[in-house]
Amino acid sequence: MRAGGPSAAAELGDLLASARAHLGASHAIALRIAAATERELSRTRQVDETVEAWAAVHAEAGVSLGPDDPVTMEIASGHLRWLARRARPDDLRRALTAQHAELARRRETLDRHDHWTGVARADLVVTLLTLPLIEPDDRRLTAEAADLAAEESARRAAVLGDDHMLTWEARALEASARLAALRSGTGGGLGTAAKAPQENGPGPAAGAGPGTAAEVAERALAVAEACMTLGGPLDAGRQIRAALLTAEAHLAADRPGDAERAARLAAGLFSVRPRPWWGGADPGRPWVVIARTGARADAAGHAARALSERSRWFPADSVWRVEVTRLLHALDGR
Fold it and tell me: Which segments carry the region annotation Disordered (predicted)?
C-alpha cells in the first residue's frame, strides 16, 4: 500500500472497493486501505476535493474505531493536514483548534515518545507556520512553532537516532520555524522547549539555542544540505523541500542571488517530478521566493507565475492565492 508508483491509485481503488464489499466501509482494514488510497489520489487533484474526501473517510473511522486506534490517528492527521493546506482563513483556525486538541489528547493517552504524538506535533507546526499569512502580527505563532519543532526533533533523535531520515526531516521543519520566527521579529522564536537540554545530547543539528540571523540561516543551510542527500536523487519531494529551505535561509542571510538560485532549483525539480504534489510541496513557493529576491527585473512576472501555479490547486480564497495577489499589488505599486 505504501510503495506508490504510476498505477498505485487505481490498484488501491480496486482493493478498497473489494474490502468495502466484503468487510464494510467502517472495518479497520478497509479504512487503512482508504487512507492509503487518499494519499495517492491527493497527489493529483485539487485541494477542495481532497479535503472533502479525507473528511468522509474520517467520519467513517469515527463509526467503528476509537480515537487512539492507529488507523484513526493516521486518517485524522491526513484530514487536518489537508484542511490546513487548503488554507482558507476558517480552515486554518479549524485545523489549529483540532490539532491542538489532538496533540493534547495523544500526550495524555499515549507514551510521550509515541510516533502518533510526534505526527500530531509536526502537523501542528506546519499549520502554525501558515497562520502568519493571515495574522502577520501574532508572534506567538512562530514562537510556538519553534518550540514544538525543537521538541519533535529531540524526540526523534532519542527514539530513532541522530542520523535517521525522519530526524533530519524534523530538523528541517525546526529550521523553517526558526527562520519564520526571525521574520516575525521574535528574536529567533526560541521558547522554553528549544532552550531545554536534549534528552540524548544536542545531536548534529538539534538544540540550536538563541542566535543571530546569520547563525540561524547557516544552521538551516546545514540541515538543508543534509536533507538533500537523504533518500537518493529520486526522492523529489524531499529534494524540493530542501531546496526551498536553502532559498529561505539565503534570504534570511541577505543573499538574494543565492536564494534565487536555490529557488530555481526547486522550480526545476517541480517541472520534472513524476507526479504533481509529490511530497505535498507548494508549486508556487519557488516563484514567490524568486519574486522577493529582487535579483531580476521581472519580479511581477515571477509572482504571476506563482499565482498561476497555485490557482491550479487552491481555491480563490486560499491564503496561498491571497498572498501572491498582495505581492503582485505591492510590485505594481513600486
Answer: 187-211
Closest CA to 51 of 20, 28, 84: 84
- Nine-digit cell at 13? 481503488
Q: Which of 210, 170, 205 is nearest to 189 (CA)?
A: 210
Output the nine-digit C-alpha cell for 123.
Answer: 502537523
Q: Determine phi and psi for 201, rounding to 5 degrees.
A: 90, 165
Cβ count near 255 (within 10 Å)? 17
- Nearest Cα neighbor of 168 from 122, 111, 132, 212 is 122
> 87 CB contacts (<8 Å, ≥6 apart)?
130, 133, 314, 318, 319, 320
Dihedral (CA of 149, 154, 160, 162) sign: positive
- Tell me the whole-structure pTM to 2 decimals: 0.88
What is the rounded distance in angstroms from the CA atom of residue 308 to the CA atom of residue 213?
32
Looking at beta carbons, which pairs linking 15-23 to residues 24 or more positions away fall under 8 Å?
none
Phi then psi for residue 200, to 5 deg, are: -125, 30
pLDDT tens digit sequence for 217-268: 999 999 999 998 876 655 777 888 999 999 999 999 999 999 999 999 999 9
- Cα separation, 213 vs 249, in Å, equals 9
**Residues linked to residue 214 through DSSP beta bridges, in sequence order:** none
Residue boundaries of the structural domains of the chain: 8-86, 90-186+213-232, 239-333
Per-residue pLDDT of 179-201, as tens digits, reads: 999 888 754 433 333 333 333 33
Burial label, 137 (beta-carbon count in 10 A; 0-12, 13-18, 19+): exposed
The x, y and z cell numbers of residue 85, run together, are 493546506
> Under a CB-based contact definition with an 8 Å cutoff, are residues 328 and 303 in contact?
yes
User: Tens digit of pLDDT for each residue in 48-81?
Assistant: 999 999 999 999 999 999 999 999 999 999 999 9
